[in-house]
């Protein structure tokens, strides 16, 4: 079961990367129906099937490359769902062996809801709140699988001796949990910015160009105006600029807090697992900030933008790992 969970973690990361690539190549509506593509399980490519698809969906002519981007994402997401179903079946069959059961069942429900969000993404024509929810759901599935792996890995439960008090460990655990909340909030801000096509609303550093402070529109930036189609965004420039600026402000807060936490972990003791955790956190954080700046300077190249999503997922896994370790200090830090 542990190997299947590990494979599912890898698959969940691939799904997140493919989802980001689909979004960034404007392929979210590459297939205007769900779960198939123009009424088929494969992308129409032959002249006859393309003609039939165009006749059935005249408002959305077939664009093969976009349709394949979307369908490949769906194929991998479907495979991930089957893997999680298999994990649940194994957990039920081996229930007497002390394996977690509620955790896999929760993941199955979560991935089922993800499928519904995926459907709504298409049927509601990229409604931003659904697109952002779908992104956050993907991160939740990945984190849930990783947490399940940590629970299954017996090496996690090997006791290690350490030199600082339980109260210090508990404080670090609370600080780490706060870091997880801050990071998730920042990922949500990034998801909202991306879902509303606001990633290039500001092209200057460190904040934005012009008299940006006179153009802030908080109320409109986080509203969902009615539209028949949300592709390429429906908000005004000022509203998109506001989304972008708040994402940058969130990045500064997240960077400052996680950097401080990483340094504190590194300096907390000579205990190697904490020192390693601090180093990994700081490296992942630096990579994420570098990618974010590169997105602005290089005008959002697809590869870097996709990497920005992937590293955000890795950063979240690092924080989940740290929080899990620090939250289980019975008699010693579990390492």
UniProtKB/TrEMBL annotation:
The keyword Mitochondrion does not apply. InterPro entries: COX15/CtaA_fam, COX15/CtaA_HemeA_synthase. The keyword Membrane applies. It is found in: Membrane. One of its GO terms (biological process) is heme A biosynthetic process. Keywords: Cell membrane, Disulfide bond, Heme biosynthesis, Iron, Membrane, Metal-binding, Oxidoreductase, Transmembrane, Transmembrane helix. GO terms for cellular component: membrane. It comes from the Bacteria. GO terms for molecular function: metal ion binding; oxidoreductase activity. It is a multi-pass membrane protein. Pathway: Porphyrin-containing compound metabolism. The chain crosses the membrane at residues 75-93, 105-123, 129-150, 171-189, 245-266, 273-294, 300-324. Its main location: membrane. This is Heme A synthase.
